[in-house]
Specification:
Elements lengths: L8 H14 L3 H22 L3 H12 L14 H4 L5
Helix pairs in contact: 1-2
Length: 85
C-alpha cells in the first residue's frame, strides 16, 4: 500500500538522521515506527480489558486444573520428574 504524508521539516530531518545512523533508508525507518506503534496499540487493547472479561479468561484458563496439587514451595527433583530420570 502506498501512502503519501506531509511531515514538518524538523520531523523529516529527524527521521532522515535516524535512518542514516541505522544505515537504513527513510521508508524503512517510517515502516518500523508505524509497526511499533501498531503493536503498542494491540498491547494497550489487551490492557484495557475490563475485570469481568479478565476473570472469564482466567476461569477458562484454569479449567481442568482443579486436581493439580497446590505448590507448597519445596518440590524435589523426584516430584518434578516422577516419570523419568
Amino acid at each position: 500500500m502506498d501512502i503519501t504524508i506531509s511531515l514538518p521539516e524538523n520531523t523529516e530531518r529527524s527521521l532522515r538522521k535516524q535512518a542514516q545512523v541505522k544505515g537504513q533508508n527513510l521508508k524503512t525507518i517510517i515502516e518500523e515506527i508505524i509497526e511499533i506503534s501498531v503493536n503498542q496499540d494491540s498491547v494497550r487493547s489487551f490492557d484495557d480489558k475490563n475485570t469481568a472479561e479478565f476473570e472469564t479468561d482466567m476461569l477458562s484458563f484454569a479449567e481442568g486444573t482443579e486436581t493439580i496439587p497446590a505448590y507448597n514451595g519445596n518440590h524435589s527433583r523426584q516430584d518434578i520428574y516422577f516419570d523419568h530420570d
